[in-house]
Batch of 3 targets.
Target 1
Amino acid sequence: MLVCIAREFGSGGHEIGKRLAQMLGYAFYDQELVTEAVKKSNISPDTLENADEKRESPWLHRIFYDDGNKELRGVTANEAMFRMQSAVILEAAQKEHCVFVGRCADDVLKRAGIKRLSLFITAPFHDRVDRKMQLTGMDEKSVTSLIRKTDKQRKSYYNFYADGSWGKPYNFDLCINSSAWGIEHTAKALAVLVRQTEGVFEKKGEKGNVESPI
């Protein structure tokens, strides 16, 4: 069973995904996708981390020609990061039950013909501002700006690399407002849903040999 979570910034999507994975005993991939991708390239970790979940800018980008992986030569850090993370997602999907957060995981698996449950975690804007203020200690103005900027980056990234529209309900199997039940109860409700659908996905899912994007 593979669960893919897309999320608005401040909605608690990372924490919900992490708790969901713990409840189910699944592998959890979020920052881990960055770590594993960095291992696959000679591009500096800082450069790749700065490219994470960001679409390349047509005005500000750098092409790399000295990477040890010939498939990544001549591409930008953003493109290299996407390809390497996609490879990690596909490799993990063949080995174990997983919860993936972000990185267009739902679309990566869809293109490979692999069955998955795609979720979008949302929350009212003011709730997201309050949550991030409590977590970071930043003032309201700064948090508001950060949320708008991050959501814009995620939308641009998803709409560029994926065959769908970020945040549009019809593009996901389930959209859920994390403010309605809170982080813990949202994760518990999703765990029940996943357990009830595991058998169906295992029967219908396709897990043949998948070609890596790099």
Target 2
Amino acid sequence: MRIDPLGAAVAPAPLPAEAPAGLSLCDLPLHAPAQVLQVTLPQQATERDLVLRLVEIGFVPGERVRVIAHGLPGGEPIAVRLGDTTFALRRFEAGFIRVQPLATDAKAAR
């Protein structure tokens, strides 16, 4: 608490919510390697079940991922390579997965 000039106690302003690090999997450029940072927890119970399924199939911190294709029209579904498996995710589902792009080796890309 702080005191205003008139002597009244003033509650501190709430801190802004920190944005999760990295970017959403649905925003990851095609073929860019990345590492899962976190799967965000949604507010609604029905979405929590979806997030639980994402974790159960392997979208866990530390796993490497790569977006390999976008469907047409509208870019859905997103084909995502996780380990040796390819998954098709809706953009809504991929939005719960936060990733950190990894540096690419120019020689390896050739």
Target 3
Amino acid sequence: MTKTELFIQLAKPDENGISRWVSVSEFVGEYACLTFGNGASWARKESILAKKYVVEFDKSITRGNGIDRIRLNGFRNGNYSQHIRADIKRAIKKLNCVVLGTSNPEVDHKNGMKNEDRVMRNEDQRLEDFQPLSKAANDAKRQFCKECRRTGIRYDAKLLGYPISYYQGEAHHNHEENACIGCYWYDPLEFKRHLQEKKQ
């Protein structure tokens, strides 16, 4: 088997070319040859794998930007990937950043785990699955989400001066689909609404 075939066997993409996140810690035994050397040769953008699939990497913020996990997110034909539907993108782009209030925002997946199959399917996406974030806010969220996935501990909004850490759930999570709900970064506006309710 080639490395491409081995990874596909391990990742098990569905009929739409979407696989689960595969941790590099799984590259053992018969999959040991998949261990990334310099540049992830078998998965880089000119590879056979990347010519067929949209390949996504989740990089560590604590290990010098090393790759923590990898997944396939649709076929490389533009029909099915994590790309946000055009009408949703246009609608979000007209809004201001929900954190900084600035214009010309990036379109952010509220669920930083990106583990909801429905939201990953373009035809099933809803406007409320996304929010406008400035580049600075989106970069910050991305960093906090990576740390959350790595540690299993959600971001604590008290670090931003808020009186509560989360409006739903506890600090620890187990990577379930709804693990993000209640976190400040999942939906800052919803978080603030809950603060108002607490005051009443």
